[in-house]
Amino acid sequence: MIEARKLAKHYGEKTAVSEVSFTVKPGQVTGFLGPNGAGKSTTMRMIVGLDRPSSGDVTVNGKHYAEHKDPLHQVGALLDAKAVHTSRTAYDHLRAMAATHSIPLKRVHEVIEMTGLGAVAKKKAGGFSLGMGQRLGIANALLGDPQTLILDEPVNGLDPEGVLWVRNLVKYLAGEGKTIFLSSHLMSEMAQTADHLIVIGRGRIIADAPIAELISGNSIQKVRVRTSQTADLTRLLASEGVTIGANEPETLEVTGLDSRRIAQIALDNRVLVYELAPLNASLEEAYFDLTKDEVEYHSHVESGEPTLITEGK
Ligand SMILES: Nc1ncnc2c1ncn2[C@@H]1O[C@H](COP(=O)(O)OP(=O)(O)OP(=O)(O)O)[C@@H](O)[C@H]1O
């Protein structure tokens, strides 16, 4: 369990995190989302004591990270996959970590096996690809079989098999009752992995809810209707005050009425409808809706050339 209370971090004039309060519960995967520069990494770093809060407080399993006598058994973190001795082999890195935390060598072999590092374990970490570096970072986080796992962008650089492996791993660990807190910019991946989401924008929490609730509450539900009588149906639905889009022949996308009501109107007026499909809103839509005013760095592509502009600084 991670509990943040009015947690804040300022760098001079810059507020990276502004008095955030949230709880990350055991037994589920909690995703941490937000635009670039929103404060995700800073928050995660404060949880494990790598950054000192300017004010407020955060505890893991009831204590500040530094107060735990067995920190690696309490919290495993992947915050920067490049934070390894480049001249050490993966095996030596994990072995040194285990030796300094009274973790048996057997566990080193276990995490190497679990993370698929077997073939490269005796190679120097400095020569690792991004994906192999991520796997080593995850192996490191798992070393103490921690109750709480914090992963900043764990799937960054992983191949599709690796992405699937991380998804299954964190779901399995959550099922075992562990607390899992992970960030990712990959919306489709987050939608498939997380049970609960915390969304941060410009250092403030803008949503903290189960993923299904967040999607249904922050996106527009549409129904796709296929009919050869698009003109007739458009006229009939127009009187109901709906918004109708039409991007394909014989197809309408209706916003503002549910499929049952559309079916009833079509039946009452002898309009033949051969498909009626509620369109599932995506996490991406909900996310863009939630964060549209919170994005610090916008990409502009009017001229074909992306430009970075900074607001609010
Ligand atoms: N050491 C630092 N000194 C000054 N400003 C910092 C420092 N670390 C972070 N910041 C600023 O704090 C804000 C939050 O940064 P942070 O890295 O936590 O965001 P993030 O949500 O993790 O972003 P990203 O998705 O790009 O990784 C940013 O505006 C960043 O520039």
TrEMBL record:
Entry keyword annotation includes Transport: yes
Swiss-Prot/TrEMBL keywords: ATP-binding, Nucleotide-binding, Transport
Stored SMART domains: AAA (SM00382)
Gene Ontology molecular function: ATP binding; ATP hydrolysis activity
Domain ABC transporter: 2-227
Family, similarity comment: Belongs to the ABC transporter superfamily.
The protein, known as: ABC-2 type transport system ATP-binding protein
Organism whose genome encodes this protein: Psychromicrobium silvestre
